[in-house]
Amino acid sequence: MGAIRFGPARVPARESPDAAISVLLERGYSACEIDFEGKFWMDYEWAERFGELARENAIALSVHAPIAGFMGHAERGKKLNMAVGMLDHSAGIAKAAGAEVVVFHPGFLLGRSREDALDSVCEQLGELRERLEKKDRAVPFGVEVMGRVRELGSAEDVIEISRRLDWVRPVLDFAHMHATTDGTFTDVEPFADVLTVADEILEPEAPFHIHFSDI
């Protein structure tokens, strides 16, 4: 097993990359997720410097794409085009910073069967991948488990998407899974079970990105 790294779900300072790394080191962090959930706030020059300093200090980076940057749209049009653009830009920043994965949320059922929705997510991700490869920013993506009981985004959905696409990894969110299973994540067994399944589809030596919360 590789080193276990942990860090915040947001960059702790935005005035400069140097300030952000300084705060991370002061707090003893060895990882950091670049937070674009609400909007893009970091340009390429900022990302490059942040990534350079992170590598020098053995801090692993990831990128969380905007919430609206999801795949599996039922209709092609403006919303899908915007989502593709968001994920494309997230991948560009990840490439500049040397981030190990771009985390994104799965889509929604939108009145479809679960199988049809999963097919749509994978189809649109495949199209996105072709676009990223042409721009030399085909970085690994991570699809996050959601906290929605009757929607797309269960651990099973995330595992299935990752199983179909070898460049997409499962991102387990234990707070979400705890909530959607009526609080079952209180003992070793449920953690071990889902970690075992995720490990089976991860490529050897691939960084395994997960989310914990103190909620």
Give an account of the 3D structure.
The chain has 215 residues and is α/β, with parallel strands linked by helices. Helices cover 44% and strands 12% of the residues. It contains 7 helices and 6 strands. Strands 1-2-3-4-5-6 form a 6-stranded parallel β-sheet.
* Radius of gyration over C-alpha positions, nearest whole angstrom: 17 Å
| Global shape | globular
How much of the sequence is in beta strands? 5-15%
Order of helices and strands: HEHEHEHEHEHHE
* Largest β sheet strand count, sense and barrel closure: 6 strands, parallel
Distance between the termini: 28 Å
The structure class reads: alpha/beta
Report strand order across the widest sheet.
1-2-3-4-5-6
Number of helices: 7
> Which parts are unreliable, with pLDDT below 50 for 5 consecutive residues or more?
none
What share of the residues lie within helices? 40-55%
DSSP strand count = 6
Mean pLDDT over all positions: 94
In brief, what are we looking at here?
With 215 residues, the chain is α/β, with parallel strands linked by helices.
Strand and helix layout:
Layout: H1 17-26, E1 31-35, H2 44-56, E2 60-64, H3 78-97, E3 102-104, H4 114-134, E4 141-144, H5 155-164, E5 168-173, H6 174-180, H7 188-201, E6 210-211
Parallel strand pairs: 1-2, 2-3, 3-4, 4-5, 5-6
Helix pairs in contact: 1-2, 2-3, 5-7
